[in-house]
Amino acid sequence: MKLLTSVIVALTAALVSCSPIEIEALATHSCVCGTKSFTNADIVGAVNKGYTTNPNPTTSSGAYPHGFHNSPENFSFPWCSGGNYVEFPLKTLPAYTPGNAPGADRVIYQTGSAKTFCGCITHTGASGNGFVLCKNS
């Protein structure tokens, strides 16, 4: 019984000390964009890289990360409802490095220290420079 209590206390302490993205990472998300599959590690890597590159982007185009206004697409993101969305290229690890070609796939997350993952989108299969929602799980 003492061992079980010690384990519970240790796990509780570990969860309390986690940063928000680490707690979000425990939810284990994945995305399939066209024929590309992205793991939770790819998603967490992209969100962390975007956040450390610029934690509060104010522009809606140009360098990454930048704001995503969800227009004209008006997606319903599985884990977010409204708010300030941020767009950052989604690659298999290692995460996208600003200045390189971004590719077709993006991770969307909300601004602020919570770094809430919202979903994945892609240019693959979209008209013009538009986006379609990836299969998010």
List keywords for this structure.
26% helix, five-stranded antiparallel sheet, alpha+beta, 137 residues, RNA binding, 22% strand, endonuclease, signal, disordered N terminus, N1-like, Nuclear Transport Factor 2, Chain: A, Ribonuclease/ribotoxin
Describe the overall structure:
The chain is α+β, with helices and mostly antiparallel strands and 137 residues long. The chain has one domain: Nuclear Transport Factor 2, Chain: A, CATH 3.10.450. Helix content is 26%, strand content 22%. It contains 3 helices and 8 strands, in the order H-H-E-E-H-E-E-E-E-E-E. The chain has helices at residues 2-17, 20-25, 40-53; strands at residues 31-33, 36-38, 66-68, 85-89, 105-110, 117-122, 132-133, 135-136. The strands form 2 sheets. Strands 3-4-5-6-7 form a 5-stranded antiparallel beta sheet, covered by helices on one side. Strands 2-1-8 form a 3-stranded antiparallel beta sheet. The radius of gyration is 16 Å and the shape is globular.
Class by alpha and beta content: alpha+beta
Number of domains: 1
Specify Rg, calculated over alpha carbons.
Answer: 16 Å
Shape: globular
Would you state the CATH class? Alpha Beta
Beta fraction: 15-25%
Contiguous low-pLDDT stretches (5 residues minimum) are 1-26
Number of strands: 8
**Percentage of residues in helical conformation:** 25-40%
If you average the pLDDT, what whole number results?
Answer: 79
Biggest β-sheet description: 5 strands, antiparallel
Order of helices and strands: HHEEHEEEEEE
CATH fold type: Nuclear Transport Factor 2, Chain: A
CATH superfamily: Microbial ribonucleases
State the separation between the terminal residues, measured CA to CA. 37 Å
| Largest sheet: spatial strand order | 3-4-5-6-7
How many H/I helices?
3
From the 3D coordinates, which CATH architecture would you assign? Roll
Pfam family, one: Ribonuclease
Signal peptide: 1-18
Keywords: Disulfide bond, Endonuclease, Hydrolase, Lyase, Nuclease, Signal
GO molecular function: hydrolase activity; lyase activity; RNA binding; RNA endonuclease activity
